[in-house]
């Protein structure tokens, strides 16, 4: 592992072997890179398929790839070739974490399942990202964001709220939430290894992760046995929970607690309505009447312009925002003020980097590099990522199973 450098990030010195592609896995490993880990992305000769997705200024450097692979290094290995599989196995003792989203049966065929890898590196944190958890009838199937949104009930929630057809969230929410979950699980496993000296195997599945994500809000009455009511959180499912139409546009506003409601009625000069209607007065009463109270807001918001509401809600200290388009984020005053976009590192690809994922006095956002071109660090396969000097070269890559042969990597 590399030496810790000043302001290098809390995961400086951690080496991650990244066998992931598309979105879910790369989100996980980019977060680790953001925290200072050295992430070596292993790609097939044709590269990660996401290199071709989205807008691009250079071949193989599409926008979708750029924003989940920042701060990584790319090497090429063809895992259809025995020599490249052996080369990958030779690299394993040099790493702290291996992350993959290859189907488990394929990893077993390659001799890269957790049991086989553990013989080469007993202290490795092995992270397996799948569509469905092992032990279930769907384990081993491919999963995609749209399928998971449908399968977990997320798409149907739109239908329940609006009375229209099921819809997908127009963002890869299942991929990204699962990648985020895997990242924090990996960090926890690395922390645990400091105390036990042992590696760990983490299995993070998209279906189960998103099911938990959705049911945390909507398990509702089924949280109890026998059930205490229907499933679904009524506040999120009322058809009035949406950007409110104003005289000339739309605005988001959350009139939520007792203070907000009194401030709101004072601002619009209707305190008598609040005092006359118990449904607005307490959190318990509002929870039983979300359709009514949100419907009231919907009607009232239509009586003023967006600018009028911004001024009024600002003065009343009520959370609100204009309804932006994604294009508006490029010039958003908040994002600009905190340095959310790093535009100093354009390079040949012209990448605008998103860097403000977390803030810490111990880490600098400007250490991250743009996403790598395919095989950009290929020369390091025979230098920095080669066989460790203190290991038994005859046994590395052949499942020696004896950690004493790898003294450099003892806990």
UniProtKB/TrEMBL annotation:
Protein keywords: Transferase
Stored Gene3D superfamilies: Crotonobetainyl-coa:carnitine coa-transferase, domain 1, formyl-coa transferase, domain 3
Region described as Disordered: 366-387
GO molecular function, one term: CoA-transferase activity
Transmembrane segments: none
InterPro entries: CoA-transferase_III_domain (IPR050483), CoA-Trfase_fam_III (IPR003673), CoA-Trfase_III_dom3_sf (IPR044855), CoA-Trfase_III_dom_1_sf (IPR023606)
Top-level taxon of origin: Bacteria
Xref: PANTHER family: BLL6097 PROTEIN, SUCCINATE--HYDROXYMETHYLGLUTARATE COA-TRANSFERASE
Name the record gives this protein: CoA transferase
């Amino acid at each position: 592992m590399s030496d810790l450098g000043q302001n290098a990030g809390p995961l400086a010195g951690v080496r991650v072997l990244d066998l992931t592609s598309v979105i879910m896995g790369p989100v996980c490993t980019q977060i680790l890179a953001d925290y200072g880990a050295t992430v070596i992305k292993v790609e097939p000769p044709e590269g990660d398929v996401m290199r071709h997705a989205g807008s691009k200024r250079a071949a193989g450097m599409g926008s979708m790839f750029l924003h989940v692979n920042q701060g990584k290094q790319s090497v090429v290995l063809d895992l259809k070739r025995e020599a490249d599989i052996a080369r990958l196995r030779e690299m394993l003792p040099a790493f702290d974490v291996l992350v993959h989203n290859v189907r488990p049966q394929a990893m077993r065929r390659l001799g890269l399942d957790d049991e086989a890898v553990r013989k080469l590196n007993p202290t490795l944190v092995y992270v397996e990202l799948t569509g469905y958890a092992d032990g279930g009838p769907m384990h081993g199937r491919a999963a995609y964001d749209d399928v998971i949104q449908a399968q977990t009930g997320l798409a149907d929630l739109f239908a329940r709220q609006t009375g229209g057809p099921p819809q997908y969230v127009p963002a890869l929410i299942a991929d990204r939430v699962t990648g985020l979950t895997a990242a924090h699980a990996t960090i926890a496993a690395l922390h645990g290894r400091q105390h036990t000296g042992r590696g760990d195997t983490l299995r993070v599945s998209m279906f189960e992760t998103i099911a938990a994500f959705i049911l945390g809000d909507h398990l509702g009455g089924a949280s109890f046995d026998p059930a205490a009511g229907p499933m679904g959180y009524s506040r999120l499912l009322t058809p009035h929970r949406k950007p409110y139409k104003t005289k000339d546009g739309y605005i988001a506003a959350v009139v939520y607690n007792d203070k907000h409601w009194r401030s709101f009625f004072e601002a619009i000069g209707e305190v008598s309505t609040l005092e006359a209607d118990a449904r607005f007065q307490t959190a318990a009463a509002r929870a039983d009447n979300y359709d009514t109270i949100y419907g009231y807001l919907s009607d009232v918001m239509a009586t003023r312009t967006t600018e009028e509401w911004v001024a009024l809600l600002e003065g009343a200290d009520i959370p609100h925002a204009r309804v932006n388009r994604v294009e508006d984020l490029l010039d958003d005053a908040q994002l600009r003020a905190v340095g959310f976009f790093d535009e100093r590192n354009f390079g040949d690809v012209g990448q605008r980097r998103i860097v403000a994922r977390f803030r810490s006095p111990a880490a600098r956002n400007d250490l991250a590099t743009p996403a790598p071109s395919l095989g950009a660090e290929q020369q390091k396969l025979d230098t920095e990522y080669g066989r460790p000097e203190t290991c038994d070269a005859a046994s590395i890559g052949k499942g020696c199973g004896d950690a004493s042969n790898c003294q450099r990597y003892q806990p």
